Amino acid sequence: MSYLVAHSGRVAALLGQHVVLVAVSLAIALAIALPLGIAAARQPRAGAVILGIAGTLYTIPSLALLALLVTLLGLGPVTAVVALVVYAQMVLIRGVVAGLRSVDPALIDAARGLGLTARQALLRVELPAALPVVLGGVRVAAVTLVALATVAAWINAGGLGVLLFEGILTQNDDKIVAGSLAAAALAIVADLVLRAGERAVRR
Amino acid sequence: MEAPAHAPGARVEFRGVGVRYGDAAAPAVSNVDLTVAAGTFAVLLGPSGCGKSTLLRTINRLVEPTSGTVLIDGVDVRDREPTQLRRGIGYAIQAVGLFPHYTVARNIAVVPALLGWERARIETRVDELLSLMKLEPSRYRDRLPRQLSGGEAQRVGVARALAAEPRVLLMDEPFAAVDAIVRASLQDQIARVHRELRTTIVFVTHDVDEALRLADRVVVMNAGRVVQEAPPADLLTAPADDFVRSLVGVDAETRQLALERPLIER
To answer: Band of the pLDDT at B260, cuts 50, 70, 90?
Structure first.
């Protein structure tokens, strides 16, 4: 704990980098996963392909994916964001598909029968009704990314992983504990905030 | 209460309408010729799978016939863009399908809003419809669907279907999911609404008593075909065949007595 207290400013700065890394990755990942998930829910055949690819990418060990991306994109936060976006796809797309499939078919029938276009039905009825399940996916993705983002320090992308790698190299257990605690706290907070969001939209 | 302003009902015609789903062995609907006169309360009656819902859904193009033509006031529904067509046709279903994140008022306002009505006109119309359905506007306007009972939700569903003053109202087993007492009250209300508005209603049910109680004309269907189209009394006294006879059943005489007793408020 002594490192955490003595260097709280540095820990806070790294925590800030960590949050930005995760938030930016999650936002980009969601912008990609939403249309892919909608397509996957609409077209079961395309859906199998999309989920297959996302699932395969998800199985690549994170260090291997980072190493591969470094050869293409070099070191730094951009490479880390790309890796995190790739990892988040699987969970997010699944969330969107499950969310849309959970919508009561009668709701869609009513929407179409009243004269909403397919697009209006999707935006005004289906996506809002799917939102709690979609947010569940976002929550799992966020927690996963908080953990994965610690590895990003290995390619000079900053974040709390810096403390872990420094601690390992210099055999400074205190640094490792500080980094781990901060990362765990961040994951818990992200989980709680998004859970509250889920409850709010379920209401 | 004054009946809200409305356009009178339209005539609905089926000419040789057939529907075959994908590679199904038997068609869901075959060769239906039927005219529902303007302002008629027509009930499509038959066992599940007889094609009554499918036939209903050809009117607003939720199902496209594989043969034949559906006309509303002489105009082929295929000449209308589907969403535009549907905005002019009321649609109420068994599961109601109220949008859960919309208030009651916003649910009722869905079609008028799509049609670009002015806000003041929509608000007036919403209150008018809530009153028509015997739901006190000030109490119900701002509720969410999950704060309604099954019967209240269905009344809001009917109000939503009537919102844009449709000339045809389609109702697919609208009262099948509520208990008998609520169902009777909803039946009274839709009978009264029909009497006030004279909207053409096409109503699907498998409940013989409901059909006899509400219909001006009952259309009995079996295996995708219309087997009899007649006023309720004729169905009991002159069933077209054994199927109709067994459908109206051994209770035919009791049912006839019930028919002679007027509906509450009718």
So the answer is: low
Taking CA atoms, what residue in A is nearest to B162? Answer: A114
| pLDDT (tens digit per residue) in A2-46 | 788 888 889 999 999 999 999 999 999 999 999 999 999 999 899
Position A32 scores a pLDDT of: 97
The CATH number linked to B111 is 3.40.50.300
Q: What is the CATH number of the domain that holds A147?
A: 1.10.3720.10
Q: Which of A114, A117, A119 is most worth mutating to test chain B (most B CB atoms within 10 A of its CB)?
A: A114
- Taking a C-beta distance cutoff of 8 angstroms, is the pair B172, B218 a contact? no
Over 70: is that where the pLDDT of B264 sits? no
> What is the domain range of residue B207?
12-260
Classify B198 in phi/psi space as left (phi over 0), alpha (psi -120 to 50) or beta. Answer: left
Can you tell me the mean pLDDT for B28-46? 96
- What digits encode the pLDDT tens for the residues A104-124? 999 999 999 999 999 999 999
Radius of gyration over alpha carbons of chain A, in Å?
Answer: 20
Q: What is the ipTM score, two decimals? A: 0.87
How far B209 CA lies from chain A's nearest CA (Å)? 25
Total domains in chain A come to 1
- Characterise B32 by phi-psi region: left (phi > 0), alpha (psi -120 to 50), beta (else): beta
Measured over the CA atoms of residue A42, residue A46, residue A48 and residue A53, the dihedral's sign is negative
**Smallest Cα distance from B239 to chain A, Å:** 34
Would residue B5 count as lying in a domain? no
Q: B243: number of CA atoms within 13 Å, CB side?
A: 14
- Please name the member of B83, B96, B100 whose beta carbon is closest to the beta carbon of A116: B83
B88 three-class SS: coil
| Encoded tokens for B162 | 């009537």
Pairwise CB contact (< 8 Å): B111 & A117: no
The predicted-structure confidence for B166-215, as pLDDT tens digits, reads as follows: 999 999 999 998 888 889 999 999 999 999 999 999 999 999 999 999 99
With beta carbons less than 8 A apart as the criterion, state whether A176 and A167 touch: yes
The pLDDT score that the predictor gives to residue B35 is 97
- Whole-number Cα distances in Å, A3 to A8, A99, A169: 8, 43, 16
Domain count, chain B: 1
Residue B4 lies in a domain: no
The parent domain of residue A157 ranges over: 2-202
